Amino acid sequence: MPDNISYTPEEVARILKISRFTVYELIKRGDLAAYRIGRKVRVEQADIDQYIQNTKSCVPNLTRSMVQAPDPGGDTQAGLIICGQDLILDTLSQHLEKLLPQLRFLRRHIGSMDGLSALYHGAANLVTAHLWDGDSGEYNLPYVRRMLPGHKTVIYNLVHRMEGFYVAKGNPKAIQAWPDLVRPGLRFVNRECGSGARVLLDEMLRRLQLEPARIAGYDQEETSHIAVASRVARGEADFGLGIEKAASQVAGVDFIPLHKERYDLIFRKEDLGLPHFQAVLEILRSKGYRDEVTGMGGYDLSMMGQKIAEV
């Protein structure tokens, strides 16, 4: 085959048996040479051959279980872009870096719906979500079906967490349940649209037929659980919604448990056999990672690493 023949990124993905997203990521980082004709990206056969030759030296560095994973021609350099905000994802990334030191693992601290959108648009390849559907009572599956049409995905559980209200130490305003959201005289601090906590709140309001306009502070938004808890600790709000773990990290805050949620990992089914993703599952099922997450407190690990569904 002549060296000057060129391919589109989609054709390269089929040749290398990797995702189209991975091809674009390799080109962006300079690991795979490419050029443009107008708005079209092209890759020459010689550059594909060179990339394959370069990756061969990386295979011996993989663990035995990774080498044996079904990955015919798969990429061994691109690593993962992991979306989510929970601290246990930082720990997961650290374990991945130790297990596969030649790969790159990047974090994007974005909410659940933004993560699913990034997966759909090819801007991420492993995302987390805790999106509750008020009609079915199910977590994540209804949203994956709606937001990734035509894309086969797999969903594995990471942990279960408790969502509830952050209140001032001693709970001086006696805040206890969802109807307190519309109690006169209370100031609330909200999460941003698209976050799992915001979806839970809005779904609960819909089910309880409570109008957001009646909540003082509904339009006051923060982009993390810690930020919400900090606003309460500083006296800028009487309460806010978030996970139990954040309450233990902010002095002067108590936690009122309300709703147990499932926090899942979601990625494309086509990537399941790649070493990167097999490494993730291996870590989730390892004693070392489980012990580390258990030591953090505030998490239920009873289903960690179990497959929830294929969608």
TrEMBL record:
Molecular function as annotated in GO: DNA binding
Domain PBP: 94-285
Chain ranges of the Helix-turn-helix domain: 7-54
Any single Pfam family the record assigns to this protein: HTH_17
Name listed for the protein in its UniProt record: Putative molybdopterin biosynthesis protein
